[in-house]
Every structure is written in structure tokens, then in C-alpha cells.
Request: fold
Amino acid sequence: MASRSTESNDAITRGTGNVFADLGFPDAAERQAKLRLAYALNRVLDGRALSQAEAAKVLGLTQPKVSALRNYKLAGFSVERLMNLLTALDQDVEIVIRKKPRYRKAARISVVAA
Reply:
């Protein structure tokens, strides 16, 4: 049986907070925003205990589109469309624009669900 060393040669790299950026996707900010919007949508749908057919009627989508949304298959959804779906569920969506802090190299896009 091999003994395990307490020291490791593996380097640990802290993530950026955006898994898509960490994986090298060129559209990482958009993907992260869409994911967070979809998460907020799914939380509202969970809270209302709607079937996919019922959610489709409320959202003006087809049941297969609701299924895609529920399974985070977001290729067919824009950020704008996801925001409009949230408003269809009586959720306010606010966009706040502010100057980035000096300590950060680049500006960013973030979505925060209250």
C-alpha cells in the first residue's frame, strides 16, 4: 500500500468566480449572466410549483422551451429574453451601471438575485 505524502506538488489556482472564464469561453460574461438569470427563473417556477405546461402558458413559451430552461440548456435564450421571462413572472429586473473600482483591471457584468 502506497503512503500518501502530506506535501503536494499540485498548484492550486483560485478561480475568477466565473467558471466559464476559468474554462476559457470567449463569451464568459454573457454565459454567466444567462445562467444566473435562468437560476432566478427556476427558483420562481419552483416556488410556484408550476408544471412545465403551466409555466409555458404563463411565459408564452412552448413546453420544450420550458424544459430547456429548467435544464439550463440556454443556447436558445438571450439575456434580454431571460429578463423578459422574469418580468412575466412578476419579478422586477434592475440594471445598474457604475464605474469599476480602480483595483480591478477590467469592468465586468454581474447578475445578482435578491
Notes: The mean pLDDT is 86. DSSP finds five helices and no strands in the chain. Residues 25-88 form a domain with the 434 Repressor (Amino-terminal Domain) fold (CATH 1.10.260.40).
